[in-house]
């Protein structure tokens, strides 16, 4: 069920067993925007049903926070235009050429192109991996950009992050939506934090004005609380 966080921002909560992330909805007077496309067309359907259940319009624009499958594989099923950082688009372009057969997936596990955590969850989400369709975004962004969708301004910013090198942060109506950017690096560092990247990310968050933070795999929480959590992780490194 869609949860309302502020006047303009709603979200579909994450689901731990399937690893489906939070999907965010921003309601403008002219257009509405989704942040992240989710893990699959089935995930998009769940999101859109939850949106229409609240008598809200289906989003016309979908913005990706980073390239990971659970945030991007639903892109083939979303309505309207799609946007991501240039680095995310480049990564999805690479993955669009991948074969999605059990054999090819096993091979990527052996070569290290895929990690066991994601492989296992992809197999849970898709009964048949042949159904996977990796799509590229219609538009890309590098640096900062804002979009007025009527009554609310969306501020996008691309940056490096402790979790992946292609993060896109979205600010709207006192909420900062960061996807997984505050988490460990699963692909490059085997679920560890890089101290320098974490420090830079904490500094970036400290400069933000928003009250709320929406991260990929947990309940929204006050931005200051999220920063304090990251600072205590940093001290332990
Ligand atoms: Zn991720």
Task: Please give the structural blueprint.
Elements: E1 3-4, E2 9-12, E3 23-27, E4 32-35, H1 41-53, E5 61-63, H2 69-72, E6 81-85, H3 86-96, H4 102-111, H5 116-125, E7 139-141, E8 144-148, E9 153-159, E10 167-172, E11 175-179, H6 195-206, E12 212-215, E13 221-222, H7 223-236
Parallel strand pairs: 4-5, 5-6, 6-7, 11-12
Antiparallel strand pairs: 1-2, 2-3, 3-4, 8-9, 9-10, 10-11, 12-13
Zinc ion binds at residues 66, 68, 163, 180.
Question: What does the model show?
Answer:
The protein has 237 residues and is of the alpha/beta class. It has one domain: Metallo-beta-lactamase, Chain A, CATH 3.60.15.10. Helices cover 31% and strands 23% of the residues. It contains seven helices and 13 strands. The protein has helices at 41-53, 69-72, 86-96, 102-111, 116-125, 195-206, 223-236, and strands at residues 3-4, 9-12, 23-27, 32-35, 61-63, 81-85, 139-141, 144-148, 153-159, 167-172, 175-179, 212-215, 221-222. The strands form two sheets. A seven-stranded mixed sheet has the order 1-2-3-4-5-6-7. It is globular. The model has no long low-confidence stretch (mean pLDDT 97). The site of zinc ion has 4 residues, from loops. Zinc ion (ZN) binds next to loops.
